[in-house]
Amino acid sequence: MTEFDHPGHTAEPRQEPGLVAGFDRGAAGREVFTIRDLTKEFEVSARTLRFYEEKGLLAPRRNGEKRLYSRRDRARLRYVLMGKRVGFSLEEVREMLDLYDLGDGRRTQLQVALAKFQERAVRLEEQRGEIDRAIAELARASLEIQAMLSARANDEG
Predict the structure, then answer these.
(1) Sequence-ordered list of residues with C-beta below 8 angstroms from that of 73, at least 6 positions apart, any chain
(2) Residue 100: its pLDDT value, please?
(3) Geometric angle at alpha carbon 88, from 81 and 55, rounded to 5°
(4) CATH code for 28-88?
(5) What are the domain boundaries of the chain?
């Protein structure tokens, strides 16, 4: 057993829906999504979607009081949620999303995203090391405390 073998730690990354490229089964054949569609699919609240809209991350069109989200809004929501899961701020996510419209075939967006993703992965690896060291220290301290309690029980008995 290594220092990395502890509950909750897995070597394999959790498989989330792809975000950069490829076929998106959830949007297949659809151009418009309601707030209900997106809240159900992504397990977020309507309030969350409205918050992202207020922050300029999503821009649904309106049909009266009803919000209608495009495939682009849906893709942006996937990106926002992925960014949030891995620790990016909403501002960092917005910066990456806004690069989509530069007109360079997404080259700049992809380059910036790659750099940010790699930086974030390095930071998460550092944090994992810190967490592993903290867990090891707690395990050592727990053993010492257990030994002290056992010694006291023997002295009293």
Answers:
(1) 33, 38, 58, 59, 60
(2) 87
(3) 65
(4) 1.10.1660.10
(5) 28-88
**Is 17:24 a contact under the CB 8 Å cutoff?**
yes
Residue 96, CA distances (Å) to 38, 104, 126, 137, 148 in order: 22, 14, 23, 38, 54
Q: Is the dihedral of CA 7, 9, 12, 15 positive or negative?
A: positive
CA geometry: angle 32, 28, 92, nearest 5 deg: 70
The pair of structure tokens assigned to 39 is 């809240």
70 touches 62 (CB < 8 A) = no
Q: Where are the beta strands (DSSP E) in the chain?
A: 32-34, 61-63, 66-70
pLDDT in tens, 3-51: 334 444 444 444 454 555 444 566 667 899 999 999 999 999 999 999 9
DSSP annotation of 13 reads P
Give CA 102 to chain center in angstroms. 25
Cβ contact 71:27 at 8 Å: yes
